[in-house]
Structure formats: C-alpha cells, structure tokens
Design goal:
six-stranded antiparallel sheet, alpha+beta, protease, endopeptidase fold (from Nostoc punctiforme), two-stranded antiparallel sheet, hydrolase, single chain
Length: about 290
C-alpha cells in the first residue's frame, strides 16, 4: 500500500475517535456541573476566606461559630483538670496540681493561696492530717476532705491526736493541760470529787490545770468568771469550754480538745472521757 494512503486512513481514524469521545453541548454542561460534596465544601471554604478578606480590608466580617471552652478544656493537663474539679466531688489532689480547688485547700490550711499544689502545701497538709489522726499522705483523699471542709467551716486548723501533734498545735501550757487530761481517762465520776478517786466536772478541770501549772477556782461558774472569754473560732485545744443553760448560767465545764471535741467528767456512770461537744450553747475561756 502507498504511504500516502496509510497516513490518510490513520488520520481519519484519529479524527473519528476524537469526534465521538469529545463531549459537546449539554454533555459539556453536565460534565462541569458541581458534585454534592463540592457544593457543600467549596462555598464554606470561600466564605471563610471572604470573612478574613473583609476583616483585613475593613469590611463587615462574617461570624464563624467556635467552641473556645471545649478547646480550652481539651488543652488542660491532667493536673490542671484535677485542680479545676468541683469541691463537692472531693477530688484527689496531689503534688503538681493547680487550679481554684487547690486554692480552696490552701485557704483552709491558712496558706497563701497561689493555686499550685507545691511542696509547702504537701508539708502543711501532712501536719494537718497527723493532727486529726489521719494517714499523713500529703494528698486529699475522701477522709481528708471531710475533715478539711469541717475545719474550714469552723475556722479550726489543727486537731489534737497524740502528744506530739498537741505540742505542735498549741502552746506549751495548753500542751501540758492536754497531756494531764488524757492521763485521767477512765477515772470515775463522783459528785463533788476533786481527786483521782473520782471527779465532778469542775473538780476534773481544776485538777488538770493544777498539775499543768495553774490553779483554778472550785466551781464551773467561778472558773468561767476567772477566765478570759474568747470566741469559738479563737479557741485552741487546752482552753476551757463552758456549757450554759437558757438563762445564761454555767452548768458544766470541760477541756477543749479541738475538732469539736472535749475532755470531761460528765455524770454518774460515765468516767472521764473524750467526747463530742453536743450543743452550740457553749462558751470558751482561756487562762
């Protein structure tokens, strides 16, 4: 076959194939039509670009919805999340935590509240736990939270669990008072009693104070009159606690032990013991 003929037939074949495969008219329109995904995505992207452009150019920028709170919480570390946990949930706070809940703990411990659970917070918290007979862990477990919230409410910091914690939390004289008071645990009640064979309430407090180094008058009323009257929030373990009736008269006296507790000789059949203060009708006195 001649070369010219072969070139002519090859050209016709190529032209024919091109004419059948190339879209024309409405086919072109359908081919250029946007897909569903592009209709939902491209305009939004364009709107975001337009918003930035308008804002830079001084026009009215479009508002875009954001969730800054979620983003902020997501960026918190575990230590920060614990420090922002609500107080009623009693979170387990530890060394390195930070946030407003840590500040609450620091205020209850009479520390400068910087919101960071550092070594000083751990040290004072251990001292607090020891004074209340709790395990000195240095972190806020459930039992510590219970005592901590009570102490914050009543403005009492240290309790009196054992002689060592008493010495750390109160003055030397009051520490002696608490030591002598504990020695007499189990001594029977005896009306009018002022010795180790039996005590009434004021006989017991008078005996304890005498051996701690200070003499008190005989009766509860006289002891109340001989002391400096202080508020409940100012009272410390080793001070005297007086019980009054509706008319204001004093009918009972004991030795404040901290944490709403007292040492006392209460009534027949009840020996000297450490017990909870059962009423709000009390007053405190200090020598």
């Amino acid at each position: 076959m001649p070369v010219t003929a072969r070139r002519t037939s090859l050209s016709r074949a190529v032209n024919a194939e091109s004419s059948t495969d190339r879209p024309t008219g409405r086919t072109i329109a359908r081919h250029r039509k946007s897909s569903k995904s592009s209709r939902s995505g491209a305009p939004r992207a364009a709107a975001a670009v337009l918003s930035v452009g308008l804002a830079v150019g001084g026009g009215a920028a479009l508002s875009l919805s954001t969730t800054p709170a979620t983003a902020s919480a997501a960026t918190m570390t575990a230590a920060q999340q614990r420090g922002h946990t609500s107080i009623p949930s009693r979170p387990l706070l530890r060394l390195g935590d930070s946030g407003p809940t840590v500040k609450y703990v620091q205020k209850a411990l009479h520390l400068g509240p910087d919101g960071y659970f550092g070594t000083s917070t751990v040290r004072v918290l251990k001292k607090f736990q020891t004074s209340w007979g709790l395990k000195a862990t240095g972190y806020t477990d459930k039992k510590t939270w219970g005592r901590l919230t009570w102490a914050a409410k009543h403005k009492v910091l240290y309790g009196n669990h054992g002689a060592s914690s008493a010495s750390a939390g109160v003055g030397t004289f009051r520490a002696k008072v608490l030591k002598e008071a504990a020695k007499l645990k189990g001594t029977p009640y005896r009306y009018g009693g002022t010795s180790t064979s039996g005590f009434d309430c004021s006989g017991y407090t008078g005996y304890v104070y005498k051996y701690a180094g200070h003499k008190l008058p005989r009766t509860a009323r006289e002891q109340y009159a001989a002391t400096k009257h202080i508020s409940r929030s100012a009272a410390k373990p080793g001070d005297l606690v007086f019980f009054s009736n509706g008319g204001g008269g004093v009918y009972h006296v004991g030795i404040y032990a901290g944490g709403n507790m007292l040492w006392h000789s209460s009534r027949p059949g009840r020996p000297v013991a450490k017990a909870q203060i059962w009423t709000s009708s009390v007053a405190f006195g200090r020598i």
